[in-house]
From TrEMBL:
SUPFAM superfamilies, A to Z: Calcium ATPase, transduction domain A (SSF81653), Calcium ATPase, transmembrane domain M (SSF81665), HAD-like (SSF56784)
The species this protein was found in: Gloeomargarita lithophora Alchichica-D10
Family: Belongs to the cation transport ATPase (P-type) (TC 3.A.3) family. Type IA subfamily.
Protein name: Potassium-transporting ATPase ATP-binding subunit
NCBIfam families: ATPase_P-type, kdpB
Length: 687
């Protein structure tokens, strides 16, 4: 077994967004951190806002130590506390600003692809006019020539051209665009025609195209808090309130034991106890999660979608092209009782002349290689397009004959409906192909079945390992295919999916998702066709292929620019990593309190001899408080890299992960501050 690879970096990362210049990124973030001190912005983070309020009070106490008339600490000490608290707030602001800054740098890079150009708008009289690309509207028809940038998103109406999509995918190999085909006809503004000419219909107004949406997303303009993030924010606010109440009971307690406590020390204790570490890093973790998805060349419509990936219980995948390589090519023609290979070739060719699918084209190639020729004039015949519902395609001949090819079950039904019988050895041919994991297509004309086409496909190398990982994470995988049961079971076994559904219709996709959801499960699926759109919308996470139709892209909440359906597996990993990082840092943050408590409480009640609590042997009450606060501030920038990168992820079940994290981040969170605070205390003795 090969070792688990972390998701990020294991794949080619986006190339068109150069790594932001780090020093420039930090400079911008520093300025942003200061700007975020504005109370109107600061109040959005209740935990840090309380620290901010504390900073203002200790600043006042620096100016006038006896402001509240009680036994106060010296102005110099108050000044030190003020500075440390201010840095605590700034560090948290900085963490958020750095995370946001990476998105902004990406957005800038994307903007450079948006050049305002001239466009050739076609007029109804057949002529054209030159207009600025900014005046184009949905429904306009434009012509784009070789060497020109496609100004807006659209759909190809006429012409075949190769397009350089590296501006959005980072992939330099040109992509063929042509009308008609579901997948190849959609073009994106900002990409470039490198050969030939396209006539296209505009499908998005300026400012609302795909790249515009991407910019808005990476810039965080549409970033709203996710449900999990809101829940955690509320929890942290409640915890903060509880600590505030606890600390508020200390002055009367102090009076009672004749050891009055100072306001500065109360604020210090409060700041030390409230969850500032996670409070300061929370939004950075969320932004970094979206960023990681973007680096994988996936555009997510919201942070909610990214997070949902981490909660996925069930992954619904289709077979062809997702689990298998998908370029199903005709490998062999198998005649049935009383027929010859030549006859199968003749009718397979006849059934495929109008079939533009890769399967159809490969059948034509094989039949022609075997010497088959058309036995009719294609000008007078009519193609019957393949549909996933009928699972057949073919040709209606001028003499009224009907040539068909398709799923064996479908052809059986067709032949019987025309009064024919099914040859006995069809089953054997069908089984032979299916057991090889291939797709058998039966070929018939009217009531006669001539034989079977073997469409060969292969399971993607390495996919089994990925399903193993998903299983260890507790994600249930279901393969959905229009193919027959035997082929489906062979491929399912070879790939290692948990479950499969064969002979699935498009409606089955949405039904499977609904059934799973009814059991309280969160479901993810990928798709690219218009008929996938409802299922993509129904799924909790719908990943559409960039090469797919506009409808699929709009229904989905994520679009993969590389059009790689297996990326869903990476997204689940990224989502889980995001949730785990948040959980780990929350655990760490709360576990830290124990040491801070032991540092500050003895310092507060020096008068009543609870020196026994000073188990760290800190030098003086002042040094103890300052050390705890310095630790509390510094731990934020120390953890920024972890918040941005995410904790190391292992494919384990939720329970195993919980145990591991409690041990690592809970245990570490208890021990680390004892050591660190002691060291800071020793360091302070130098002064
Ligand atoms: N061009 C075609 N002409 C005739 N029949 C076809 C053609 N392509 C596929 N079929 C048959 O129709 C069935 C369903 O096709 P469909 O594309 O819906 O599913 P699939 O590609 O087999 O599975 P998946 O959903 O995993 O992609 C195929 O299994 C095959 O038997
Ligand atoms: K704290
Ligand atoms: Mg398919």
């Amino acid at each position: 077994m090969t070792k688990w690879q972390p998701p990020v970096g294991s794949r080619q990362q986006r190339r068109h967004t150069p790594k932001a210049d780090l020093s420039q990124l930090y400079q911008r973030a520093l300025i942003e951190a200061l700007r975020k001190l504005d109370p109107r912005m600061a109040v959005k983070n209740p935990v840090m806002f309380l620290v901010w309020v504390g900073t203002v009070i200790t600043a006042l106490l620096t100016v006038n130590p006896n402001l509240f008339g009680v036994a106060e600490t010296a102005a110099g000490f108050n000044a030190l506390v003020t500075v440390i608290l201010l840095f605590t707030v700034l560090f948290a602001n900085f963490a958020e600003a750095v995370a946001e800054g990476r998105g902004k740098a990406q957005a800038d890079a994307l903007r450079t692809t948006q050049t305002q150009t001239d466009a050739k708008r076609l007029l109804s009289d057949g002529g054209f006019e030159r207009v600025s690309s900014t005046v184009l509207r949905t429904g306009d028809r434009i012509q784009v020539n070789a060497g020109e940038v496609i100004p807006v998103d659209g759909e190809v109406l006429d012409g075949v051209a190769s397009v350089d999509e590296s501006a959005i995918t980072g992939e330099s190999a040109p992509v063929l665009k042509e009308p008609g085909s579901d997948v190849a006809s959609s073009v994106t503004g900002g990409t470039k025609v490198i050969s030939d000419t396209l006539v296209m219909r505009v499908t998005a107004d300026p400012g609302e195209g795909f790249i515009d949406r991407m910019i808005a997303l990476v810039e965080g303009a549409e970033r709203t808090k996710t449900p999990n993030e809101i829940a955690l924010t509320v929890l942290l606010a409640v915890l903060t309130l509880v600590f505030l109440l606890v600390v508020a009971t200390l002055p009367p307690l102090g009076m009672y034991v004749q050891s009055p406590v100072s306001i500065t020390l109360l604020i210090a204790l409060l700041v030390a106890l409230i969850p500032t570490t996670i409070g300061g890093l929370l939004s950075a973790i969320g932004i970094a999660g979206m960023d990681r998805v973007a680096q994988f060349n996936v555009v997510a419509t919201s942070g909610r979608a990214v997070e949902a990936c981490g909660d996925i219980n069930t992954l619904v995948l289709d077979k062809t092209g997702t689990i298998t390589l998908g370029n199903r090519l005709a490998e062999e023609l198998i005649p049935v009782q009383g027929q010859t290979v030549a006859q199968v070739a003749t009718f397979a060719l006849a059934a495929s002349v109008f079939d533009t699918t890769p399967e159809g084209k490969s059948i034509v190639r094989l039949a022609e290689k075997l010497g088959a020729t058309l036995h009719f004039d294609p000008q007078t015949a009519e193609g019957v397009e393949f549909s996933a519902r009928t699972r057949m395609s073919g040709t209606d001949l001028p003499d009224g004959g009907e040539v068909r090819k398709g799923a064996v079950e479908a052809i059986r039904g067709f032949v019987r409906s025309r009064g024919g019988t099914v040859p006995e050895d069809l089953e054997a041919a069908y089984e032979r192909v299916s057991r090889l994991g291939g797709t058998p297509l039966a070929v018939c004309q009217n009531q006669t079945i001539y034989g079977v086409v073997y469409l060969k496909d292969m399971v993607k190398p390495g996919i089994q390992e990925r399903f193993d990982q998903l299983r260890r994470m507790g994600v249930h995988t279901i393969m959905l295919t229009g193919d027959n049961r035997i082929t489906a079971s062979v491929i399912a076994q070879e790939a290692g999916v948990d479950d499969f559904i064969a002979e699935a219709t498009p409606e089955d996709k949405i039904r499977v998702i609904q059934t799973e959801q009814a059991q309280g499960k969160l479901v993810a699926m990928t798709g690219d066709g218009t008929n996938d759109a409802p299922a993509l919308a129904q799924a909790n996470v719908g990943l559409a292929m960039n090469s797919g139709t506009q409808a699929a892209k709009e229904a989905a909440n994520m679009v993969d620019l590389d059009s790689d359906p297996t990326k869903l597996i990476d997204l689940v990993t990224i989502g889980k990593q995001l949730l785990i990082t948040r959980g780990a840092l929350t655990t760490f943050s709360l576990a830290n309190d124990i040491a801070k408590y032991f540092a500050i409480i003895p310092a507060m009640f020096t008068g009543i001899g609870i020196g026994a609590l000073n188990i760290m042997g800190l030098r003086s009450p002042q040094s103890a408080v300052l050390s705890a606060l310095i630790y509390n501030a510094l731990i934020i920038p120390v953890l920024i890299p972890l918040a941005l990168k995410g904790v190391t992820f292992r494919p384990l079940t939720a329970n195993q992960l919980l145990q591991r994290n409690i041990l690592l981040y809970g245990g570490g969170g208890v021990v680390a501050p004892f050591v660190a605070i002691k060291l800071i205390d020793l360091g302070l003795s130098v002064f």
